[in-house]
Amino acid sequence: MSCPSINPIILGGEDDIKWVCQDMELGDSKELRNYMERLHDTA
Asked: Is the pTM of this model over 0.70?
């Protein structure tokens, strides 16, 4: 499962995303981290 609710919160920083997705599985958190890395690369 992904965490679609993070999209509007991304501007708040990764700490906010961790709070929103604190109940995510480890596999999903890895995907989220990869997503954030790609986001920073394109920014």
From this structure: no
Instruction: Using DSSP, state whether 12 is helix, strand or coil.
Output: helix
Report how far residue 31's alpha carbon sits from residue 13's, in angstroms, rounded to the nearest whole number: 17
d(CA 37, CA 39): 5
Both tokens of 42, joined, read 């394109």
- Tell me: the pLDDT tens digits for 6-25? 555 555 555 555 555 555 55
Altogether, the residues listed in the chain come to a count of 43
- How many CA atoms, within 13 angstroms, populate the side-chain half-sphere of residue 43? 8
CA within 13 Å, CB half, 14: 9
